[in-house]
Structures are given as C-alpha cells and as structure tokens.
Design a protein that fits this description.
By secondary structure, the protein is low in regular secondary structure. It has a domain of 28 residues. 12% of the residues lie in helices and 6% in strands. It contains 1 helix and 2 strands. The termini are far apart.
C-alpha cells in the first residue's frame, strides 16, 4: 500500500493530514503530548476513512457491541 492508501483508511473523514520524514521527529518522545501542528501545514490530503473516529479508533459496525 502507498502512504496515500493508508491515509485513506486511517485518517478520519474530513481531517487534513501531512506526511513527515521520521528524521524530523524529536529523538525524545517523552514530551510527545506537548507537540502541536498548525492546520495550515497539513497539506498532503484530507482523510476519507468513514469508520474511523476522531480519536483514531474504529467505530463499531451497526449492530456490534462497542
């Protein structure tokens, strides 16, 4: 799968995204909850995954227990 194909099934519908090089990430991940991004920098596409919630978890199918 290409990165665009993965984004299409993993990014919630309507949410913008951007691909970054892993070398651009800080080496120390302990403060990752303080990272932020300007939405204007999310220019690689817009998600289309109907079954993905904002928190990245999959919604249960109709009739399935959550």
């Amino acid at each position: 799968m290409t990165m665009d194909q993965v984004a299409a099934i993993a990014v919630p519908t309507g949410r913008p995204y951007a691909f970054i090089d892993s070398s651009d990430l800080p080496k120390d991940w302990s403060s990752r909850d303080t990272w932020f991004v300007d939405d204007a920098d999310l220019t690689d596409g817009v998600g289309g995954a109907e079954g993905v919630q904002e928190d990245g978890l999959f919604k249960p199918r109709e009739g399935e227990a959550a």
